[in-house]
Structures are given as structure tokens and as C-alpha cells.
Amino acid sequence: MSGLLTKFGLPLVALALTAFAVKQVSISHETMPKMPPPIEPARNPFPNTVAGAGMIEPQTENIAMGSPLPGVVVEMTAKVGQKVKAGDPLFRLDDRQLRAELLARRAFKTSAEAELTRLRNEPRPEKIRMGEAQVAEAKAKLADARDQWSRSRKLFAQKVSTAEDLVTREQAYRAAEAAVAHVQADLELTKAGAWEYDKQVAAAEVERAEAQVQQIETDLDRLVIRAMEDGEVLQVNVRPGEFVGAPANQPLVVLGNVRQLHVRVDIDEYDIPRFKVNAPARATLKGEPDEWFPLRFVRIEPYVVPKKSLTGDNTERVDTRVLQVIYAIDARGKQLYVGQQLDAFIDASKKETAAPLIAPEPLPAADPSLPAGQS
Length: 375
Known about the structure:
Blueprint: H1 2-28, E1 49-57, E2 63-65, E3 71-76, E4 83-84, E5 89-93, H2 96-120, H3 125-157, H4 163-192, H5 196-222, E6 224-226, E7 231-236, E8 243-244, E9 253-256, E10 262-268, E11 281-285, E12 288-306, E13 321-329, E14 341-347
Helix pairs in contact: 2-5, 3-4
């Protein structure tokens, strides 16, 4: 029995394996049907094109709002998608310390103003009357000292009083004279009022106090972060209770005017010579290659920068520098979003012939009468 299996079974198994091998070889040589790509790539709309990766941005570009002063956010007004006008508040920082300091500065200003008013209203009538009374008192004392000195001289002449008493009476009279001169000078000083230089010093103190008040008020106003231009809130990266530094690590609020969207197209430096200003341009969104959006030239940013926006192409060089060209895009009623990538194509067809090169003038023929090397 085993001999029959060996004689007839093995050839049958070999024949089956051979048939299976022939079938597999024939299948492997069959042409596979071409499958369409999931998403058609963008097609070149011009015969000669400068292509570049584009990024949608607001007309005003992205305005990254930060805080000029550090502090804790206590109120958040801005919301994503909100329309704002220039001057509208976006968020506010804690201002309690500055408000307390403002009260102290205002009190100092009030004191300085009062001092300046006092100096400007000098002299007081009461001070003048008091000075006149002091002058009258000093003159009365002077008359008494003069009378006593006169009697002392008569008594000394009659050898009734001593020389020491005469000298004492004379010194008292001289002192009374000086006292009269002193109180008279004080009265004149009082009537003259405050010194002009004292008024200037007081006025300077008032100005300094006003400047300090204005500085605190300015800092209080800076704690309220406001929109600088009309636009729309595109992004909010801060919440009430968070501490923000100056400068912040990231934009706290991003604004932009999206009434007219722009496209920032990166043109590789190798394609810059072929780029033409105001040439027709179109763009298509990623994933929608059949829908084209017209582009209108706006401006060139002439500073060539390193390329940052990568398209994912395996032939793309990350060390390439690019010229950034700004175009206005016609959305044609379609909802476009800031930050979307597009494929931009710019017509690079030659519409004018280049000027012919000027041939260099021929050198003059050498004079055969001169020695070699001279002309």
C-alpha cells in the first residue's frame, strides 16, 4: 500500500504544486488597475508658473495683544469671534495697589496746591497789624531807654551816679534802637509778601504732584488692555485669575481685521527672478483643488527671510529663504479661516522680450611699427 502512495501520490502532489506556482506567477504579472488619489492635487492654471505655499491672514496681520504691566487678570471682556472697535476693553488687571497709591498722590497734590495758594495770598492783614503793634512797642521802649540814658548823663555830671550806670543806660538805649530796626524790617518783609522764588518752588511742587497723579492714572489705564484697531477676536489665551508677565510668554489675545483677508505667499529664492509684480495669480485650498480664488497683488515684503511654512513635500528644503508677497483674496462667499494654507500660483509668462546684449567693442589693431608688447 505504501508503495502505491509513493508511486502515484508524490507525482500528484508535485503536479498540484507546479500548477499553483504557475498560477501565482501569472497573477503577479497582471497589470494592477490605477486607483485615483483620495484628493486630487492642485493643477497649474498657467503655462509658466511661480508656485508658493500661502497662508491666510487678516488684513491687519495678526495683532498679538499683551500686557504692558505684570499682574493678575481680574476681568475678561474679550471672547473668541467677538467684533471689537478701537478702544474697546479686552481684559483688566488687578488695580487695587495703584488706586491706593493714587489717593496718596492726590493728597500730596492738594497739600502742594494749598501751600502755593498760601504763598500767593501773602501777606495776611493780621500779620501786618501784629507787625505794626510790635514796631509801636519797640519805639515806646526806645523812648524809655533814651529818657533813662538822658537822666543818667545828668546824674553822672552831678557826680551822683557812677560811670557803670551810665554805660548800662547807654547800652540799653542802643539795644532798643536795634530792636526797633528789627521789628521795622520784619514789618517790611511781611508787607512784601512771599518771595518770588518761594512761589516758584511751590509751583514746581504742584507740577511734580500733578505729574505723579497723571503717572498713576496712566498706569491704571494701562491695566485695562484695549483694542488698538477695529477687528475680530481670533484667539484668547488668558483667563481670570491668571498672572501675566510683561512681556508675556505668548500672545494673550490675538486680533485681526478679517473684513478683507490676505494671503502671505512664500516664494522660494530660486523663483524670485521669475516673479512678476501684478501678474495674474490664483490660489486653491488644501483638499479642494477644483475651486480657485483670484488673488490681487497688495505689496511685497522685500526682506528675504528663512522659510518657516512647510508644505510637507519630500523635495522641500528647510534651509531655503523666501520672499513674502501679500495678496488680497476674493473669498467668493466661501468661509475662509485665518491660518488656512493654500497653494498659490502666479503667472510667470514672458510678456516682454529682453533687451539684446551689447557686444563689446573690438580692441584696436596693434601697430606693426612698434616693438612687441607696445601699442
